[in-house]
């Protein structure tokens, strides 16, 4: 959103009547926040203007001296077919309208039409152009597999393919004025993703984060929209709301799934109309921030159950990112372990300890219900009590065992290929069990607790087996 012009491409108004151009410009800005407007009163200049600057939409008068609107439309379709055109006429002529639509006009309006109809049509055209652009951008990224701004994601440690696809998606939608929805379990890194999207939006303002969980409706309205002096008992001073604090930046609403229905209505109105009223004021203010929302809940399920408004859900879903849980990206565990060991050692003024080999094996057997945040906390705890050069496994084992109700089970999906394919004589059941136990003990470096987790059995069951193996 360079220089905060909206939309990110120009809208060219072509009409030989300067008064009409002025009145339409004012209405577009006042009613829809459209500021990226270029004007042209000489139809012969249209193509040159298009070639000089980035135009996405042309709003074209039909009756003009020199070149008429239909001729200009034909030239645009021929020389710049990527540009969308809306035709406006002083007369309501069905035949002309049909002809223009057949020539490729996006829509046709009569100057005497209700102004709202024209503005809604312009907004529809803008949404369509933006979607097309995002699509093109996404396809290009997917084809060349690269990121334009890898620095924006520097703080997010991952080698996972799904996470890299998310990065490419964020780059594609970063400049869109539509809201961005980030969902995923608690602790997967949703706030970090929101920060990357904010950096890439190019907005100069701040990222203002608001956790909306547990806010009742009036506190929600006051927090977001602020109030004027005397708005309610105790409102001795006017207060700016978070929407205003986030001007020219990003408003990040966390835990959006917990919002009450009346607050959902307020948020929808804000997103749809771009306007809000501070409490006690009858003068609307315009939102000038990009909105990013996050939730650990399944909004689709909530919407089906009737606890989340369908219209808001669809509005929020325009750009949607689903961050995978840590257990679905186990390849990230060694990297994150190393990252947090460094971070914790630095924060606690210690030398970075060396993790024992079996630690990654152990962590791979765990589901991490608290995701990356839980891993980070485990590492900080281990580093804070650590003394020797090699990190002790004890605190990790304790933290994992503390998770009551956690069934002991391996996380990797069962192997589908035939392990015994090349073997002529099948081992007996107890021979195979002994071999498995020996292998698990070797991988766990003799640690029975880890070996038991690797095998998916209790430690006492392993002890019994070990006695037999010996
Ligand atoms: N890929 C990652 N690389 C480095 N640190 C990460 C990564 N993912 C998460 N973290 C760290 O884990 C912690 C939790 O991340 P974050 O707050 O972004 O999660 P969240 O999904 O927003 O959680 P919640 O739903 O509870 O708000 C933070 O300290 C964050 O820095």
Automatic annotation (TrEMBL):
GO biological process: phosphorelay signal transduction system; regulation of DNA-templated transcription
Ranges where the Sigma-54 factor interaction domain occurs: 156-384
Modified positions (4-aspartylphosphate) in chain numbering: 61
One Pfam family linked to the record: Sigma54_activat
The Response regulatory domain, residue ranges: 10-126
MF annotations from Gene Ontology: ATP binding; sequence-specific DNA binding
InterPro entries with a match to the protein in the record: AAA+_ATPase (IPR003593), AAA_lid_NorR (IPR058031), CheY-like_superfamily (IPR011006), Homeodomain-like_sf (IPR009057), HTH_Fis (IPR002197), P-loop_NTPase (IPR027417), Sig_transdc_resp-reg_receiver (IPR001789), Sigma_54_int (IPR002078)
Keywords, in A-Z order: ATP-binding, Nucleotide-binding, Phosphoprotein, Transcription, Transcription regulation
Record bears the keyword ATP-binding: yes
Top-level taxon of origin: Bacteria
PANTHER family: RESPONSE REGULATOR HSFA, TRANSCRIPTIONAL REGULATORY PROTEIN
Name recorded for this polypeptide: Two component, sigma54 specific, transcriptional regulator, Fis family
């Amino acid at each position: 959103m360079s220089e905060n012009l909206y939309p990110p491409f120009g809208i060219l108004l072509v009409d030989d009547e300067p008064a009409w151009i002025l009145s339409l410009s004012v209405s577009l800005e006042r009613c829809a926040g459209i500021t990226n407007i270029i004007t042209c009163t000489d139809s012969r200049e249209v193509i040159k203007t298009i070639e000089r600057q980035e135009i996405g939409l042309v709003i074209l008068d039909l009756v003009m001296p020199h070149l008429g609107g239909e001729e200009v439309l034909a030239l645009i379709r021929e020389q710049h077919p990527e540009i969308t055109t809306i035709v406006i006429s002083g007369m309501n002529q069905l035949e002309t309208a049909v002809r223009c639509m057949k020539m490729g006009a996006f829509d046709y309006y009569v100057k005497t039409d209700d102004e709202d109809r024209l503005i809604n049509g312009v907004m529809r055209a803008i949404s369509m152009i933006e979607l097309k652009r995002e699509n093109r951008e996404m396809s290009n990224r997917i084809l060349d597999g690269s990121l334009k701004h890898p620095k924006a994601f520097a703080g997010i440690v991952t080698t996972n393919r799904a996470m890299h696809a998310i990065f490419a998606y964020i780059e594609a939608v970063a400049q869109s004025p539509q809201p961005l929805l980030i969902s995923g379990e608690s602790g997967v890194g949703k706030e970090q993703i929101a920060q990357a999207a904010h950096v890439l939006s190019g907005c100069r303002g701040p990222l203002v984060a608001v956790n909306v969980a547990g806010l009742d409706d009036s506190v929600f309205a006051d927090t977001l929209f602020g109030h004027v002096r005397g708005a309610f008992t105790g409102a001795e001073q006017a207060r700016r709301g978070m929407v205003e604090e986030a001007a020219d930046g990003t408003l990040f609403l966390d835990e959006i799934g917990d919002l009450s229905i009346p607050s959902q209505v307020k948020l929808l109105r804000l997103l749809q109309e771009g306007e809000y009223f501070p409490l006690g004021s009858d003068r609307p203010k315009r939102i000038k921030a990009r909105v990013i929302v996050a939730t650990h809940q399944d909004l689709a399920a909530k919407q089906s159950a009737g606890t989340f408004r369908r219209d808001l859900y669809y509005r929020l879903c325009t750009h949607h990112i689903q961050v995978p849980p840590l257990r679905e990206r186990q390849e990230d565990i060694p990297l994150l372990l190393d990252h947090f060991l460094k971070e914790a050692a630095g924060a606690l003024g210690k030398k970075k300890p060396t993790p024992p080999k079996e630690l990654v094996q152990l962590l791979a057997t765990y589901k991490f219900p608290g995701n990356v945040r839980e891993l980070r906390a485990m590492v900080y705890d281990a580093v804070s009590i650590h003394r020797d050069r090699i990190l002790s496994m004890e605190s990790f084992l304790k933290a994992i065992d503390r998770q009551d109700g956690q069934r002991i089970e391996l996380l990797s999906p069962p192997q589908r290929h035939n392990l015994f394919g090349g073997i002529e004589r099948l081992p007996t059941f107890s021979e195979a069990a002994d071999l498995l136990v020996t292998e698990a003990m070797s991988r766990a470096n003799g640690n029975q607790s880890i070996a038991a987790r690797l095998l998916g059995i209790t430690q006492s069951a392993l002890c019994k087996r070990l006695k037999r193996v010996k």
